[in-house]
Design a protein that fits this description.
CATH class of the largest domain: Alpha Beta
Order of helices and strands: HEHEEEHHEEEEHHEE
Largest sheet: 8 strands, mixed
Distance between the termini: 27 Å
Structural class: alpha+beta
Helix content: 10-25%
Strand order of the largest sheet: 5-3-2-10-9-8-7-6
Number of strands: 10
Shape: elongated
Strand content: 25-35%
CATH architecture of the largest domain: 2-Layer Sandwich
Number of helices: 6
Length: about 280
């Protein structure tokens, strides 16, 4: 079992914490991304990918100047090259601190989010707010071929990149997905359920081997963003594709879901939510 890094272990995770309904940006708890990237062998100057972490907030509310509650949902987009990620419980508590606070407008709330989150993570953050009666496409599906019907035997439930292998040197371009991704919180050990997309160009990756590798995260303790970066790094190291994208959509906990995206050749992707989200 992976032990919590020193910074993550000092966070609010696993602790009894009162909810604050008065705006308080000091609740946000940044964690250096580099603590885990050291294990993978790169830093901000040598990132092997670009990307972002898209958080969806489902429990968004504040008061207008007359004290009337405003509700909706929001997306928060953090750049992957930010020096810090935000610990999820502190993010939840931060958003809840808006519940009893009055703001003059929706724009003022969005500006506040962007200022606080950008300061906490060390790079500009984009925030988007949606009213519940707005017509927005919410549900979609993962692109590519789903691997989950493969009849495989599995006995590795701790990350094992040695499972990865190519089937041939013949270059292919394909998109694969699986809904069998599960990892655990780095600090509390609570389960994190997700779906993942692997899009690549290069030597043909063995599908059964890839699915076994993804399942091997099942008892692994690491934050969502770190798991996706580990998948990206392991596939690059063991299969050596010329192009690679790894994108995961995790189920919500505490009114937030996290959807990390890493790629060395793409800059856009479909953000449609899945049925489990």
């Amino acid at each position: 079992m992976t032990k919590p890094t020193s910074t993550a272990n000092k966070s609010l995770l696993g602790q009894t914490t009162p909810y604050c309904q008065a705006y308080d940006p000091a609740i946000l708890f940044p964690i250096p991304r580099q603590e885990k990237r050291d294990e993978l062998g790169f830093d901000l100057k040598t990132l092997p990918f670009s990307g972002e972490d898209v958080w969806t907030g489902y429990e968004i509310s504040w008061l207008n100047l007359k004290g009337k509650p405003q509700v909706g949902w929001a997306e928060f987009v953090f750049p992957a090259d930010s020096p810090y990620l935000i610990e999820s419980k502190s993010f939840k508590l931060y958003l809840n601190s808006f519940n009893g606070t009055r703001f003059e407008s929706e724009e003022a709330v969005i500006k506040c989010w962007q200022k606080d989150l950008s300061q906490a993570c060390g790079k500009p953050v984009t925030a988007l707010f949606y009213r519940l009666n707005e017509s927005v496409v919410l549900q979609g599906d993962l692109p590519g071929k789903c691997l989950d019907s493969l009849d495989i035997e599995v006995d590795d439930y701790q990350v094992n990149p040695d499972l990865l292998q190519t089937e041939s040197d013949q270059a292919v371009s394909e998109t694969l997905n699986s809904h069998l991704l599960k990892s655990n919180c780095l600090v509390t050990g609570q389960p994190d359920w997700g779906s993942i997309v692997v899009r690549y160009e290069g030597a043909h990756i063995n599908h059964e081997a890839l699915l076994k590798y993804l399942i091997s995260f099942r008892e692994h303790n690491e934050f969502h963003e770190q798991c996706v970066e580990r998948v990206f790094t392991d596939i690059m190291r063991f299969c050596q594709p010329k192009k690679l994208t790894v994108y995961a959509r995790y189920l919500r906990r505490g009114g937030l879901d996290i959807n990390p995206y890493r790629s060395n050749f793409e800059v856009t992707f479909d953000r449609a939510r899945l049925v489990r989200q």
